[in-house]
Amino acid sequence: MLEVQDISFRFTENPVLDAVSFKAEPGQIISVIGESGSGKSTLLRAVYGLHDLEQGEIRWKGKKILGPAYNLVPGESYIKYLAQDFDLMPYTTVSENVGKFLSNFYPEEKKRRIDELLEMVELTEYANSRPGNLSGGQQQRVALARAMALKPELLLLDEPFSHIDSFRKSKLRRDLFAFLRKKQITCIIATHDSVDALAHADKTLVIKDGRIVREDSPQRLYQNPGSSYTASLFGEVNEIRPDLLLPPGNNGQPGDKVLVYTHELHVAEQSHLKVRVKESYFEGGHYLIRGLYHGQVLFFDHPVPLPPEKIIYLKADEKIVKERLNHKNKTG
Ligand SMILES: Nc1ncnc2c1ncn2[C@@H]1O[C@H](COP(=O)(O)OP(=O)(O)OP(=O)(O)O)[C@@H](O)[C@H]1O
C-alpha cells in the first residue's frame, strides 16, 4: 500500500504541496486532476523520491521513500515514473529503448516482452526506428511501453496521453489500464483530461493550489462536484439559483447556487429560466449554445443551432438539482 501522510513541499516561498494525504491500495488506479500549476507533477515527483519534503512522509509497503538528500540515486526500482518529457535514448532503436531495463540474461524472454509491449502501443513496425525520427505521440508511446517493461509495483504517469491523437488514445487507454489491472500494478495518473480521470480510476483526487480539495470515486465526484473548480475540470458548467429550476418550496437557502452541466439543461415549453440565445457552436454530436439570463451567461447543449436573440426556456431534471442541493448543504 502507498501511504502519503501530510506532506508539504516548496521550491521557493509558496508551498507547492500543502499537507497532502492519501492512500492507494495495491492494484488501485488513482487519478489526480487539477488545473495547470496546481501541483500534480510535483506530487508524482515527490512520491518517486525526487523532492526533499518539508514535512510528512511517504511509505510504500511500510518502507519510507526518501528524497535526494538521503538517497544518492533518487527513485526506487519497484516504482516507474513516466515524466512529461519522455527521457528516451534518441540514437538507439525503439526496441532497445523499451528493453532498457530488462535483463539480457534471457534474450528470448526479453524479445517476447518487448514485442508484447510494442504491440500494445501499436509501434511494432517502428521497432528498429530511432526515437529521434518519431513524432511526439509516437515517442510518448515508446516511453509508456518502457515504463511498463519491468512490471513495476507502482507506476506514476504524468499526462501519459497528452501527445497521442484521439484516434489512438481511447484504445491505448483501454489496453493500458486493462494491462495494469491484470498485472495488479498500482498506478497514479496525473491528468487534465476528464476521461483519463473518470473512465478508468478507482478514485480521483482533485488538487488545487497544492491541496487535495476532494477525494472520491469518479462517479460521485462527477455527480456531486461540490465546487465550480471541480465541476469545470469536467467541462463547461453553470451555477444557477435553485429556485429557477425547482417548483416553489424546498429551494435551499438564499444565495444558493447549484452546478448544472451543459448536457443537463433542456429546452422546455415554459420555465422560470427564460434565456436569450446569443451564439451556437458546433461540437460534433451537438451544438453548445451560449445564452443570457438577466446578464448571466449560461451554456447548454442542443441538437441543432438556435437563432441569435431567440427566447427559450430551460429546465433541468429536478432529481439531479435536489440531490446537488442536498449534497451542497450537507458538505457546505
Ligand atoms: N523547478 C521548479 N522551481 C520552482 N517552481 C516550480 C518548479 N517546478 C514547478 N514549479 C511550480 O510549482 C507549481 C506546481 O507545478 P506542477 O508542475 O507540479 O503543476 P502541474 O499541476 O503538474 O501543472 P501542469 O498541468 O501544467 O503540468 C507551479 O506553480 C510551478 O510554477
From TrEMBL:
<dbReference type="InterPro" id="IPR003593">
    <property type="entry name" value="AAA+_ATPase"/>
</dbReference>
<dbReference type="InterPro" id="IPR003439">
    <property type="entry name" value="ABC_transporter-like_ATP-bd"/>
</dbReference>
<dbReference type="InterPro" id="IPR027417">
    <property type="entry name" value="P-loop_NTPase"/>
</dbReference>
<keyword id="KW-1003">Cell membrane</keyword>
<keyword id="KW-0813">Transport</keyword>
<dbReference type="GO" id="GO:0005524">
    <property type="term" value="F:ATP binding"/>
</dbReference>
<keyword id="KW-0067">ATP-binding</keyword>
<keyword id="KW-0472">Membrane</keyword>
<dbReference type="GO" id="GO:0016887">
    <property type="term" value="F:ATP hydrolysis activity"/>
</dbReference>
<dbReference type="InterPro" id="IPR017871">
    <property type="entry name" value="ABC_transporter-like_CS"/>
</dbReference>
<dbReference type="Pfam" id="PF00005">
    <property type="entry name" value="ABC_tran"/>
</dbReference>
<feature type="domain" description="ABC transporter">
    <location>
        <begin position="2"/>
        <end position="234"/>
    </location>
</feature>
<keyword id="KW-1278">Translocase</keyword>
<dbReference type="InterPro" id="IPR050093">
    <property type="entry name" value="ABC_SmlMolc_Importer"/>
</dbReference>
<protein>
    <submittedName>
        <fullName>ABC transporter ATP-binding protein</fullName>
    </submittedName>
</protein>
<keyword id="KW-0547">Nucleotide-binding</keyword>
<keyword id="KW-0997">Cell inner membrane</keyword>
